[in-house]
Specification:
600 residues, 3-stranded antiparallel β-sheet
């Protein structure tokens, strides 16, 4: 009987959604006259029939934490004082920026022609794809890039399309990633509003926020991160997962907090502040005090259930957001600052390592740690494996060095960023792989090159496929650059983290060498990934195209290529006042949000 009722209820809900779609297209469900009124009156929002805003919660929150706007301070400046540039330097900088804009325009034109209103376009095939719920991920993710690149006609067309044709009342898939929806859609809409002042984007962001807020409708008010919209719409019981990734739950604070600041509704900030309090409370009581494991248990509020620690994939942005949330709110103390400081202190002690390189480069990488409690205490094993996703770290440390006057963090930032730059230059393509393993130095301060030590590391890293061969032979077989003991994942998927840190280092130091580094990176990326319709992820950065080897293209151009990677390349060749880091904070998806300051 229950099964029959469930099918009937599903049919009714489907009919309601289809009716809404037919009656309103996929609009925000607000008449244009009311929108015009709202653009003049920024202090109020009307009642409307947006589905998720009117769905009664099963576990209502009885009181909300107030927004901490009264504690905002004027933080120290982040950006360096830039010297006037010569005409020759300006001409070179602008010519490089023009190349980046042309690359963006090529990708945007391809998306506009072949995949308009879809999530992605295949840069090889030109085929449209819906990989992120069909809400136009590339369109929304790239809104702020259009504005920043002064492509105003394209921006106006894009926001009109978002306003008229995208509804977050429903999805073309039964479930969503709360994390991806937050960083790409909510962040993209908020940034478009903050840059342009177009209130339609704030209204649309509020729709996304109210939809996502219902994922927090669980017994302990922690979100169901792989959220089943259909079940939530049917008011079925939902709970936080017993196994989740740290990055998924720890990376929502910037967008939710900014939405509360803009709307005056504290519920969004309250939801993520609850997460922050739990993370802060648990931070110094994990197996590695100061760090959280990559796998956690939100259902039981157990943030020490895992034994794998990393600043890379599965964890990365959870270590980025505390400092940036403090910057957004104008805070130089409190839990956000403490989480950042303690995590960086522990990372420097347990995760950072110097790799052995032929030139004895003074660089650092962040590895992965396995920690287990036993009768003798806690045992930890560091594996010198790192990846492109850890490269964000240099930028965060550089920001922390200025915002919190932690001078030692700038030295760490430079070594981490240079480590990623070294990984780019070490590969024959000039591009860093997704994941690689290095040869760890025994001493951070003195690490002369040893061919035999490297060969031993190669043999150990490739033991599962060595077939009795020595490390010297394995290094030749797998064409390993000196210093790299294994390429675990040879893909490059158009990631932005390395250029992100190079950009921040440039803005923080004012040193033009970072612009030259960025240009060399761009030339390599462009040569490796360019297609007639944009740029494509590739299978193997270790392929030597100078010797006729090909790195096969995967026909994937994720929305972050337009929303992040090209944005950072464009900004490093732009005037320092464009997205001044003293006024803006860039989210983990590179969406600029205006920092709150007293008097706002």
């Amino acid at each position: 009987m229950w099964a029959i009722r469930r099918y009937i209820l599903t049919g009714i809900l489907l009919f309601v959604f289809i009716s809404l779609w037919r009656n309103y297209g996929t609009s925000s469900l607000l008449p244009s006259s009311l929108l015009d009124q709202l653009q003049l009156d920024s202090g109020s929002f009307p009642k409307d029939d947006f589905f998720w805003r009117n769905l009664e919660p099963q576990f209502p929150v009885t009181s909300f934490r107030p927004l901490p706007t009264g504690t905002a301070k004027t933080l120290p400046p982040v950006q360096a004082k830039f010297e006037p540039e010569s005409d020759q330097d300006k001409q070179l900088r602008l010519s490089r920026r023009g190349v980046i804009k042309d690359a963006f325009s090529k990708a945007w034109t391809s998306y506009r022609k072949h995949a308009w209103m879809r999530d992605e376009v295949g840069p090889v095939s030109g085929q449209p794809k819906n990989s992120l719920n069909g809400w136009g991920a590339t369109l929304v993710d790239a809104l702020d890039t259009l504005w920043i690149m002064d492509m105003k006609p394209e921006f106006e067309e894009a926001i009109a399309a978002v306003h008229k044709n995208i509804s977050f009342a429903f999805s073309n898939t039964p479930g969503i990633s709360v994390f991806e929806t937050t960083i790409r859609y909510l962040g993209g809409l908020l940034a478009a509003h903050d840059l342009s002042g177009d209130r339609r984007m704030l209204l649309k962001a509020r729709d996304v926020g109210d939809m996502l807020y219902m994922s927090f409708d669980t017994p302990n008010h922690l979100p169901s991160l792989r959220w089943e919209l259909k079940e939530a719409a049917q008011k079925q019981s939902q709970s936080a997962a017993q196994v989740a990734l740290l990055a998924e739950i720890g990376s929502l604070s910037l967008e939710f907090t900014r939405l509360s600041l803009l709307t005056g509704d504290p519920k969004y900030h309250d939801a993520v502040d609850n997460i922050a309090q739990l993370l802060h409370r648990a931070q110094m009581y994990t197996k590695v005090p100061g760090l959280w494991p990559a796998f956690i248990n939100p259902a039981d509020e157990d943030f020490d259930s895992g034994s794998f620690y990393t600043l890379g994939g599965m964890s990365d942005s959870a270590y980025e957001c505390p400092l940036k949330t403090a910057a957004l709110l104008g805070q130089d103390s409190g839990k956000w600052v403490e989480m950042y400081l303690e995590s960086m202190k522990a990372s420097n002690e347990y995760l950072f390592f110097r790799p052995m390189t032929p030139e004895n480069d003074d660089i650092l990488f962040s590895g992965v740690l396995h920690a287990n409690r036993n009768s003798d205490g806690t045992s930890v094993i560091l594996v010198p494996s790192s990846g492109h996703l850890t490269c964000f770290l240099g930028g965060v440390l550089a920001l922390g060095s200025k915002l919190l006057k932690e001078e030692s963090h700038l030295a760490l930032a430079e070594k981490i960023t240079k480590g990623c730059v070294w990984a780019y230059s070490a590969l024959p393509s000039g591009v860093m792989p997704e994941v690689l393993e290095l040869t760890r130095c025994a001493d951070r301060n003195n690490c002369p090159w040893s061919e035999s030590t490297w060969h031993d590391a190669v043999a150990a890293a490739n033991a599962d496929r060595a077939e009795g061969k020595p490390g010297s032979e394995l290094a030749q077989q797998f064409k390993l650059p000196k210093g790299i003991s294994k390429i675990n994942d040879g893909r490059y998927v158009l990631r932005p983290e390395a250029i992100e840190s190079v950009f921040v280092m440039y803005r923080v130091t004012g040193d033009k060498k970072w612009q030259d580094i960025a240009w060399k990176m761009w030339e390599s990326i462009d040569a490796l990934t360019s297609t007639s319709r944009g740029h494509s992820a590739v299978t193997n950065v270790n392929a030597n195209h100078h010797e006729g080897e090909a790195a096969d293209k995967i026909d994937v151009m994720e929305s972050y290529w337009l929303g992040e990677t090209l944005k950072y390349f464009y900004l490093i060749f732009s005037e320092p006042e464009l997205i001044n880091l003293d006024d803006w904070v860039l989210t983990t998806e590179a969406h600029p949000l205006r920092r709150f300051k007293q008097g706002d």
